[in-house]
Amino acid sequence: MRNPVCYTGCLLIVASIAIGQTMPPSTITYISKVPFIVKTAVFSDKLSVGGRTHTLSGNIQIALAPRKTGIPSDHSFWLSKPLPVEEYQKIEYSYTYPKQPLPKWKPIISVEANNTSFPFGSLLAAFQLQYGDSATLSFRYKKNGKLIHHAVFHRPGLPPVIEGYRQKEAADSIDSKIKSLTANDPKKQWMGFDSLRGRTLKLGAGKKLDLLIRKNNWNRDSCILFRLYSSYNKAKPRWQLTGHLLSLDSLESNSQYLLDIRYVDMELINTYSLKTLPHWYQSTLGRSASSLIGLAVLLGVPYRYHRFRLQREARKRKQLEDQLTTVQTQLNPHFVFNALSSIEGLVSNQENERANEYLSSFSDIMRDTLKNSREPIIPLSEDLDTLEKYLRVEQLRFEFKWMMDIDPTLDLDQIEFPPMLLQPVVENAIKHGISGKSNQGLLVIAIKKRNNDLVITVEDNGGARVTTNQKNKGNGYGLQLTKDRIERLRELYKTDNISFNLSHQSNSSKATYCFENWIQAYENSYH
Q: What range does the domain containing 192 cover?
């Protein structure tokens, strides 16, 4: 960012160096007896021996500096204390360069106060320098010809030069630190770099390369252009901008490259030859060994892939079974809570004998549920046996009637079924459907074969009941776990053919489970 330069009495300038990737003209303020401003591109930020200023660009413009207004500047050289403005009428100036070798002295025209941008209404000189040319700006007194100030501008005819290099591995843990220290080392100690002599460099296979380009005190580090291309490819890529530390990270092994470097605004080029050595597998022996290894891999890949797929499917199945078991085990505390509530109700009504009978049967049910809680599926006959025990226990309290209608063609011992999948729905039908109807309540569980589908219905003659969203009333948690288990079963068996539907009428409720092609799958497995 540029800072204003202000004069109060005598000239006081504060300047900053603008850093960028493009090369717009820069301004240099010379604080001398007659302050002036030079506009050019990249220039040396230190005066060389003899007071010369080097510039990469041949375009140079020089203007008289304002004395009482703030001006922008990229850099400044303090040479002497400025003369009073009133002295300007006694002073004249001239400039010389190869196309105008003889000085032509001209009077100084004061800067207008309302001009705030270059050249501030007073352009002293504008000229173009070729490589190796110099230009001179001089100020003197008109009366006696005494020289006041003499400034020299030179455009060197030199391309950039690579002084050091560093080979590095693809993964270099200290790379950033070395780069930072090297780029900012004023003593040029070049940590980890070797000196480069000549224009040829040989690299190890798989190596990356850092190059250190000689600095010349340019006001911008990013003033070098480079292009890297294969020595076998005649098409040259576009120039890219870089600084004095150039990293080449895309060098391929067993290849030859040419690297061109030049300064911005200059066409003089230095070309370097880079050669990368081959990896072992790029040699004749290595290619033969690679072919044999490739053949072995090619033959082994199908087998390895098959094993990997089986293992992946087994892991996924185990994960889904664990998830199913987790949801399933959540039913146990839910079931225990409801059972203890039933026992509490019997005790509260002083029906101790029935409570003891309930507790005894409840212990049998708990043994069954604990035994099956870690199994994703069990024989359907075992699950129905546990369900029958539960129905007889609940019948002690509510005195309803129930029946199971089982298709005689079904082999219940061979058909496997998720344990406790029916119990929450049966419990919901009892507690919220027929519990208040005493011996008029009827619960029918039908297990049928429809083609190859297993269809189970749980139907009661109770009235309409509260919805499953009303979990705070105790009849939604078990049904929600049932739906979660069915979702896990669909994932486990990779099917959408397992469904659950619950419907309510004014005088009945019905829950329907449908397992499509479930019977055929088990008949194929066991017969």
A: 162-278
